[in-house]
Amino acid sequence: MKKILFYGAILLSSIWACTQVPISGRNQLLLVSDDEMNAMSFTSYKQFLDTNKVVPANTQQAAMVKRVGDRIAKAAQSYFEKNNAPDYLKSYQWQTELVQSNQVNAWCMPGGKMVVYTGILPITVNETGLAVVMGHEVSHAIAKHGSERMSQGMVAQGLLTAGQVGLGIAMQNKPSATKNLWNTVFNVAAPTGAQLGMLAFGRNQESEADHLGLIFMAMAGYNPQEAVSFWGRMAAQSGGAKASGLMSFLSTHPSDEKRIEDIKRLMPEALQYYNTSSKK
């Protein structure tokens, strides 16, 4: 009987905390606030930057990474302003850094804290290819996929008692288990955080990030058709993933024919945004 009451209360909390992902409209469970997620995210991000080699901002590659990040962040803000949600990103503190590493990877933490590894630049090839990657990663943060994963994990591991919501409450109830869950979701390797990055997302979340990413890069003035070329290059090199350093990226970003087909299907919508942005 107690279990029934507990899960009933969790269900009621879930209904109360159910929101919709922008653009895709998918319902998602969020039991943690942006403020809670961002506080932990910003701390983890700073620790990562303090323990890794950040490429100086005055270099050509770092300047390009920052330029793309700024344009996509501005485009995302413009999208929400045009859709009567100007405060949706109010808690985001955008920051993009290029980090020296052979890893073929990039990621964006909750609240807009992003890292691009130098190892992915040979595959992005140009600034528009980089916008494909960064648009995708930023979209994970905007769609609050990390918060969704934390919420699902907190319910699954019983970190909240009946009727409770919130990361802070979970930390009070079971601080060690909650911290371990955070480290699992965001793959924070103690003590340096050298492996910081998102745990593999589900197919729905990956598809959403592709969809939102196309829209935001298009609004930022980057041709979304480059996404087909980029994922084609990833697919072509996936056979040599271990040798080329692609494994870390492909583990969370499946590159296959289905993904490219889906991107082509979404392209007409993205091109409408691109054509509008190019006329400004």
From TrEMBL:
Residues 1-19 form the signal peptide. Transmembrane segments: none annotated. It comes from the Bacteria. Keywords: Hydrolase, Metal-binding, Metalloprotease, Protease, Signal, Zinc. Its cofactor is Zn(2+). InterPro entries: Mito/Outer_Membr_Metalloprot (IPR051156), Peptidase_M48 (IPR001915). CDD domains: M48C_Oma1_like. Residues 62-265 form the Peptidase M48 domain. It holds the Pfam family Peptidase_M48. Binds 1 zinc ion per subunit. Belongs to the peptidase M48 family. This is M48 family metallopeptidase. It comes from Arcicella rigui.
